[in-house]
Amino acid sequence: EVQLLESGGGLVQPGGSLRLSCAASGFTFSSYAMTWVRQAPGRGLQWVSTISHSGGSTYYADSVKGRFTISRDNSKNTLYVQMNSLRAEDTALYYCAKDLLVWGSDWFFDVWGRGTLVTVSS
Amino acid sequence: EIVMTQSPATLSVSPGERATLSCRASQSVSTNLAWYQQRPGQAPRLLIYAASTRATGIPARFSGSGSETEFTLTISSLQSEDSALYYCQQYTIRPPLTFGGGTKVEIK
Predict the structure, then answer these.
(1) Which helix (H) or strand (E) holds B107?
(2) Can you give the pLDDT of all 108 residues of chain B as single tens digits?
(3) CA A57 from centre of chain
(4) Are the beta carbons of A120 and A90 closer than 8 angstroms?
(5) A60 with B100: Cβ contact below 8 A
(6) Is B9 helix (H, G, I), strand (E, B) or coil?
């Protein structure tokens, strides 16, 4: 079964850091671009960051650029996002998502995890 | 950045009736558009990509149409399990990837 499982969320103070992980199983992780999408409580979906299948290319929303770093370890089938200088507006459920098409970077997603909640508050 | 606008915000439809959801892009996205369904407490699920291609396992009552800036998701005969939020997403010009604000479909 194709599955994504996020972890690492929690309560953090403004200015703090967290690293989220997304463990993938049931597919050839190294063949797919991966993405983080977040959803603030009661709000819509917001794209955060995407990484190519090899990890050689990364992309960020302006709202997180310079503060978040996406990475992947294809030997461990795991996607990461390091989040620094966190702000209240980063509070959200963070989903990892898999591209539908192999090798490409199509940026639409056929598999999503259940999400991990990040709360930034003092 | 391409802005995606969905309408209506909420749609109330009787079981068995047709539901029509709209999505408008601020500039042409060709047919690089996806639709997702998000049931309460669940992750989004891909319904449609390339504007009109159903994803694997999606029932035939879901169909997508449109191109350039105007798109429609149609649920031909609404079932109770279709009560959800629906989002459109463009992927033609990225970054940034952009989603619409969502349409909530309620069962009347």
Answers:
(1) strand B103-107
(2) 999 999 999 999 999 999 999 999 999 999 999 999 999 999 999 999 999 999 999 999 999 999 999 999 999 999 999 999 999 999 998 899 999 999 999 999
(3) 15
(4) yes
(5) no
(6) coil
Is the separation of the CB atoms in B99 and A38 below 8 Å? Answer: no
Phi, psi of B84 (to 5 degrees): -175, 175
How many CA atoms within 13 Å lie on the side-chain side of A9? 19
pLDDT score of A105 more than 80: no
Query: Is some CB atom of chain A closer than 8 A to the CB atom of B54?
Result: no
Tokens representing residue B43 in the block = 């992750």
A112 at interface of B, judged by CB pairs closer than 8 A: yes
Q: How far apart are CA A83 and CA A68, in angstroms?
A: 4
Give the 3-state secondary structure of residue A103: coil
Q: How many CB atoms lie within 10 A of CB B76?
A: 14
Single-letter residue type at B20: T
The pLDDT, as a whole number, for residue A104 is 73
Chain B nearest-CA distance from A122, in A, is: 26
For residues B9 and A112, what is the distance between their CA atoms, to the nearest angstrom? 24
Q: Which residue of B has its CA nearest to A116?
A: B43
A7 beta partners: A21
